[in-house]
Amino acid sequence: MANIRRYFAVHKVGMQAYSVKSSERMKKLLFALLLLVTNSIGLSASVNPHDLIVRVDVSSATFVVRSTIPMNAETKIELLNADGLGLYNGTIAEKHYLNKRFPLASIADGEYQLILSDLRGKTIQPLVVKKGVITQDLALAKQQFFPRVDLQDNRLMVVRYNNKEGNRINISVANGSGETVFQDQVKGEDIKRAYQLDKLEAGAYYVTFSSRTVRKHTVAIALD
Fold first, then answer.
1. What angle do CA 35, 38, 46 make, to 5 degrees?
2. 8 A C-beta contact, residue 195 and residue 182
3. Per-position DSSP letters for 25-81, written without gaps between them
4. Which of 10, 60, 165, 187 is deepest in the core (most CB within 10 A)?
5. Helix (H, G, I), strand (E, B) or coil at 149
């Protein structure tokens, strides 16, 4: 494991940088690559709750859910009741707007969750239906960000995670046989790390993140 750790360069933007090679040239190169990649990654977690409009249309006896902006990526939409039962699920294409109507007669009084999720994260907006009136409390809305993994042509794996809770994050890399070849622990709110994977054999690998708020979020990568 000690030898494996030597092959993974860990860098923290704006603070200290650690490299397999001690040369300043290598440090500057990896640091520049990390800045280039991380600055190009959006931090949107689905759609911002403030960009959602939920209202009742009395004329059609429906309640309408709309977005004021198009989706940044293909987005899954779900409507769950208080028991977690899915009343609706669908997909919104990238660059399309959310515009969905639900018959009021099909929605009983109670608490609901409108969930929008994409590859970057998940937005959960609680709704309350009572006597034909729907309440959308933005203060109760939650946004969960997923860790992002970008693999560069030179086998530099860049990890970025908006860890809003600041919990300790466990990062592990396993090969196609399930054998763990690397482990790391990081902590902080805005996590940026780069790992050099040039000593690993070609094949499929799985990068897994886990913490108290992230339960084994896994991303598959392939090394040529």
1. 160
2. yes
3. HHHHHHHHHHHHHHHTS----SS-GGGEEEEEEGGGTEEEEEESS--SS-EEEEEEE
4. 10
5. strand
